[in-house]
Structures are given as C-alpha cells and as structure tokens.
Amino acid sequence: MLSEYYLEKFRCMLQSNRSNPSLNSVYLVGGAPDVAETVPVIMCGLLLLLACFNFTNTSIAISGKRLKEIGIRKVMGGMRYQLIIQFLGENLILCFFGLLAGLLMAEWLVPAYDNMWAWLELDLSYMENASFLFFLMALLMVTALVAGSYPALYITSFEPVSILKGKARFGGTNWFTRILLGGQFVISLLAIILGIAFYNNGKYQNEYDLGFSKRGIISAWVNNESGFNTYRDALASNKDIVQIAGTRHHVVNTWLNDPVKFESVEREVDIMEIGDGYMDVMDMTLVAGRKFVADSETDRKESVLVTEEFVKKFGWTDNPIGKRVVWMDTVQLYVIGVIKNIYSRALWAPVEPLMVRYVAKDKYQQVVIKTDPEKMASVDEFMQKKWKEVFPNTLYTGLWIDEQMRETNEINKNVSVMFGFLGFFAALMTAIGLFSLVTLNIEMKMKEIGIRKVLGASMANIAGVINFEFIVNLGIATVLGLTLGYFATDAIMAIIWEYYLDLNFQTMFSAVSLMLVIAFLAVGYKTISTALLNPTKTLRDE
User: Fold this and answer.
1) DSSP-H helix ranges across 333-399
2) Exposure of 206 in the CB half-sphere (CA atoms within 13 A)
3) What SS3 class is residue 365?
C-alpha cells in the first residue's frame, strides 16, 4: 500500500541511491564513488600548495640580488611596508600571468579531460559563470598572498647599514625553507606512489578473473523462443561464431535478487536463469558437481548451480552437492554443482552469492555468441545483416561485452591517467624547487667551497658540502612520504573498490627510485659545475 510519495531532483537521485540501496527502482548508473571525484580535487590542491612552496623558495633564491636596491631605498626614506607592498604587488602580477597561462592550458586540457569520460560534458564559460570568475579571483589573491608573504617579509627585514657594508649575506637555507622543501618531497612522493599504484591496480583489475569471459562475447535481445531459434539458425552459417546460446539473464545486464532459505538461514542472493550452452559460451568454471543436462525437465524444475560465495554465505563446510534450498517459500531446489564466483557488479562491490537455474526455452530473452576477439567487428556486422533479414521491423540490439563493461574499464584507465599526470607535475615542481634551493645554498657557500678546493678537497667532498642537508631532508621526507603514501593509497582504493591490488614493495621501491632520480637530475648539473669551478674566480669575487 502506498503510504507517501515525493519528488526528487535528478541531481539528488544518485546520492540517494548510494545512501539508501533499497531505492534501487531508480535505475541510474552507479558511477564511481564520491572519493573518486574528491581525491583529484585534493591532489590539485596539493599541487597548488607545491607551486606556492616553489614560488616562495624561488623568490628567496633570486631576491638576494636585490639587497642593494632594498638598502638604498631604505636609506632614501622608503618604509618597510612600502617595500612589502611592492614585493607582494610583483608577486601578484607574476601570479596573474601564471593564471593566464593556466587558462590557456585549460583550453586544451579541459576538452581532453572531457573526452576521457563518456557521460561528462564540460564547457569553459567564463563570462556566463560568475561563481567561476569569483573563484579565479580568489585563487589569484590567495596564491599571491601565500606564495609571496614570506619572501616579502624576510627580504625587507634586513637593516640598510649591514646591507650597504656588505655584512648582510642573504640566503642560505633555514628551517622554513627546509620545511617547504621537505613538504614538497612528501607531496611529490605521495603523488608518485598514487600514480604507480593506480596504474598497477588498473592492470591488475583488467586481468582479474570475474568468473566469465570478458572478450569475444556479443549479446542481442530477442522476443521469445521462436525469435531465438530463427536468429540462431541464421547465424549458424558463420564459421567465425564459435558458439551460440540462449538465456533469460546475462551476467552483465540482468539478474534477479531474492531471498533463499536453507534450513533456518535466509540470505538475499542473486539469481540467474540460463539456457543450454550459456556456461560454455561465457567460460563459467565448474569447480564441483555437474552442469545442467540439456533439455532435462528435472534440472529445470529442481536443480541449481551455486557459486563459491553462496556456499560461504550459508556456512556449508561439508559437501554442498545435494543440499536443499527453498526459494519463494515454496520452490524446493537441490544443488547439483558449484561454480567459481561471478563478479556481476565488477570490482566495485563485494561479490554476491549467486544461484543459477536452468530455464525453459520459451523464456529465452537473449542470444549470446562467442567469437575470436579479433573478429568481433566482422561478426557484429554479419549479425546486423542477418538481423535485418530476420527482423526487418526491429532495431538491432546487439552489444559487445566490452561496451557493457566500458564504464568499469574506463574508470580504471582514467583514474590511472589522472594520478600519473598529477604525479608527473608534482615531481616536476619538486625538481624546480630543489634546484632553486641548491642554487641558493651554493651562492651562500661559494667562499667555503673555494677554500676547500684550494686545500685539495675532492669533488665528492664538495658535493657533500653542497648537498648534505638536502640528503638529510630527502631521507626524512622519504620516510614520511612512504608512510603517508601507504595509508592514503590503501584508504582511497578501499573506498573506491572492494577488490584491488594492495600496495607492495615494488611500488614503494619504484616511487622512491624515481624520486631519487629526479632529485639527482635536479641538483647534479649544478653540483658538478660548481665542483669543477676554478677556486681563484670564487675567492677573487669574495
């Protein structure tokens, strides 16, 4: 009896369906979980933070050359707040040009991102979207303030007398710049771990045994047994079609869900009704017992196959063959065989217990064929041709199994691409930041390096003087990044998928190795060129 009703916005239906699975009459594509949408946003925020760190360190590295300008302006009566406003204004202008460059890149990246998702439609409309313009302005101001505040405050803090007498030696790394660099290492390592982990997980899930064939299968809807027989006979002449089967339900698009009882235990289970040859066409694996006997009325009325998860859910520890279960309170069915688990919902949700029944031919609703995956296009074209001959007034309903599983494959691929892209840019920005700090450190230690070279220090010794604190910083950041990466990756994957590839040593080792290579490339050239520099030039300048 209807007790109440209400109208719900389309935007709210998906969230309602997630929070209340009983509302499954709203037949919407489930899509990826919320975390699949929020995590890239968080990663982009971390990349923006990386960019701010880089901007801060780079500003400090290059602003040392402006100490004399600052000293003269202070002597001439310039106030510190005026210098701070000047530096912040310069940073704002630089950020503005960076924003323009970002918008130009977005004109290319947004359509590319839009093309990655079949159901997504993105459009960059600046003038028609006031909230987006407000976001850009807020982003510009916040970025300029966060990135430019410390350099502006730090650079203008020097006394003019010490600057003009040459006593103020600007530069060197301090606790703040070390924290910024360490934060860059941690975020970059996290992004690299996520990129590698999601790439490996995508390969793992694409190769995961779902309990049925994922390639070379084409299905089409038919009205009844007569339609199935006619169409099957028309297809039989094609030698590229290996097998043909009729069925009521198909693992990728239809099944029932009903309570089934064994003694005092009742469970909600998926139920499929299949016809002759369907198990062979779909490569469903029998692990115990037997299959259905063709045209057996006994099997149709009282025999069922169950999955391993079905056996587990009902707690059967002994031989399940011959067990009696009750469906719809009155239908008594006997287990004749056990098949491997069927992941009909892919790997997003836990595998459900499945009971398979043998259906009468007059209930066939689909024809399913098996062919060589390389010949699917030609076979599909043949099926369309025969369809027009047999059912001239009906649209062809054939679907490749690849198309029916496209959403799962698409999300796996695109998530891997996104995290790989984010990892690349995180590593690139970290390399830039590291190069800036190494340059700053070298400028501060030029006299020390020159004296050491005069006294016979080796290139390795010079490299150690330049990079020791960065090596320590990188070591600490590696420990923190690996710890954060391990827990973050596992948490994100556990929310998105039920079955995924656990983070392993190979992934962690690959991420750290890549990070070390990036760090070496960032500092190697500058370190070697400094170590080879003639000490007389550096000491003369000092």
Assistant:
1) 376-390
2) 15
3) coil
| Residue whose pair of structure tokens reads 């209807």 in the numeric block | 2
Coil, strand or helix: which one is 39?
Answer: helix
CB 368 within 8 A of CB 404: no
- pLDDT one-digit tens code per residue, 70-123: 778 777 877 888 888 888 888 899 889 988 998 898 888 888 887 877 667 777
Torsion sign (Cα): 430, 115, 382, 365: positive
- Residue 501 DSSP code: P
Determine phi and psi for 306, rounding to 5 degrees: -130, 155
pLDDT tens track for 411-426: 777 877 888 888 888 8
State phi, psi for 420 to the nearest 5 degrees. Answer: -65, -40
Q: pLDDT: is 523 or 165 the higher one?
A: 523
What angle do the packed helices 459-496 and 446-454 form, to 10 degrees?
Answer: 130
The answer to whether 512 and 479 are in contact (CB under 8 A) is no
Q: Which two tokens stand for residue 135?
A: 């976001």
138 φ, ψ to 5°?
-65, -40
213-246 per-position pLDDT tens digit: 988 999 999 988 999 999 999 999 999 999 999 9
More confident residue, 419 or 171: 419
- For residue 354, the SS3 value is strand
Q: What mean pLDDT do residues 423-445 have?
A: 77
Distance CA 527, CA 464 (A): 9
Phi, psi of 221 (to 5 degrees): -85, 135
How far apart CA 174 and CA 182 sit, in angstroms, is 12
Cβ neighbour number for residue 298 with a 10 Å cutoff: 12
The residue with tokens 């000491």 is 539
Cβ contacts of residue 474 below 8 Å, gap of 6+? 185, 515, 516, 519
Q: What are phi and psi of 528, to 5 degrees?
A: -65, -45
Inform me whether the pLDDT recorded for 164 exceeds 50.
yes
Q: pTM for this structure?
A: 0.78
* Bigger pLDDT: 76 vs 286: 286
How far is it, in rounded angstroms, from Cα 61 to Cα 54?
Answer: 10
Give the closest residue to 109 by CA, choosing from 127, 122, 96, 94.
122
- Contact predicate 196/468, CB 8 Å: no
Residue 308 reports pLDDT greater than 70: yes
At position 336, the amino acid (one-letter code) is I
Which residues does 55 contact at the CB level (< 8 Å), separation at least 6?
Answer: 91, 94, 95, 143, 147, 148
Burial of residue 172 (number of CB atoms within 10 Å: 0-12, 13-18, 19+) = middle
